[in-house]
Amino acid sequence: MTKASTSKSSVSGATKSTINAQEAAHFGALAADWWDPNGSSAMLHRLNPVRLGYIRDAINLHFGVAASDLRPLAGRRALDVGCGAGLVCEPLARMGAAVTGLDAAPENIDAAKAHAEPQRLDIDYRNIGIEKFGENGFDLVTSLEVIEHVDDADGFVAGLAHAMSDDGLMILSTPNRTAMSKIMLVDLAEMTGRIPKGTHHHDQFFTPDELEKLLGQAGLKVTDTTGLSYSPSHGFALSENLSLNYLMTVVRD
User: Fold this and answer.
1) How far apart are CA 244 and CA 113, in angstroms?
2) Domains in the chain: how many in total?
3) Which domain does 128 fall in, by range?
């Protein structure tokens, strides 16, 4: 059996949790104002349009969808792992997908459900780790700014791979482990209050080569790596510079 075709029992029955309880508690404590663009998740709100633009372009290319199509995921299933309060799940639902969102913090799941309900967005939110999720066949799997917060990164990636359909698409993003990211995303960001203290731990960041190796071990292949840069005057933007943060497009090998 290849790693790309891991059985349901070998993933859902894993005894080692990918959830870091301390990290889950940290983000759960931020749940109440997750949707406040000026609150503790303000940087995510500024980052989100750039991430969504990258995701939409990858969807168009992978599934052969016209850029003018308002519902490029109609008839498809999408899974967002580490969904927080739904900043990515809700746009994916509006693109037409049947969306499932997983998060380690029950407070985040409660906030996500509360935000989606009045908008009549039918999103399946669950407080569960990917290693216990077990379902597969998702056309799109996303996990943005998450892998640096988990225990057992190998098991986490194996869970993502298991969830994705054979011809599916995966989008990941994470900070790079560089001197620049330590200054910008840890030291300076926390000192200025742009990111809550304890959000990032530099030694848990992954270089692109390290992440690509993990993905390869799970039977996956990286088809694009694009940097995310930041400037106080212009905010976040896609970039060839990978030193701060990066996005990856991933398919089955």
Assistant:
1) 32
2) 1
3) 3-252
Q: What is the CA radius of gyration of the chain?
A: 17
Closest CA to 173 of 149, 205, 146, 194: 146
Task: Tell me the three state secondary structure of residue 169.
Answer: strand
Alpha helices, DSSP H, located in 85-220: 89-94, 106-116, 130-133, 153-163, 179-181, 188-191, 208-217
- Separate counts of helices (H) and strands (E) for the chain: 10, 8
Indicate the SS3 state at residue 194: coil
Residue 235 exposure: Cα atoms within 13 Å on the Cβ side: 10
* CA-CA-CA-CA torsion sign (124, 152, 250, 248): positive
Between β-strands 164-175 and 138-144, what pairing exists: parallel, antiparallel or unpaired?
parallel
Q: Residue 115: give its domain's CATH number.
A: 3.40.50.150
253 residues of the chain, pLDDT tens digit each: 223 333 333 454 444 899 888 888 888 888 889 999 988 888 889 899 999 999 999 999 999 999 999 999 999 999 999 999 999 999 999 999 999 999 999 999 999 999 999 999 999 999 999 999 999 999 999 999 999 999 999 999 999 999 999 999 999 999 999 988 877 777 665 655 566 666 667 878 999 999 999 999 999 999 999 999 988 788 899 999 999 999 999 999 9
Q: 250 and 215 in contact (C-beta within 8 Å)?
A: yes
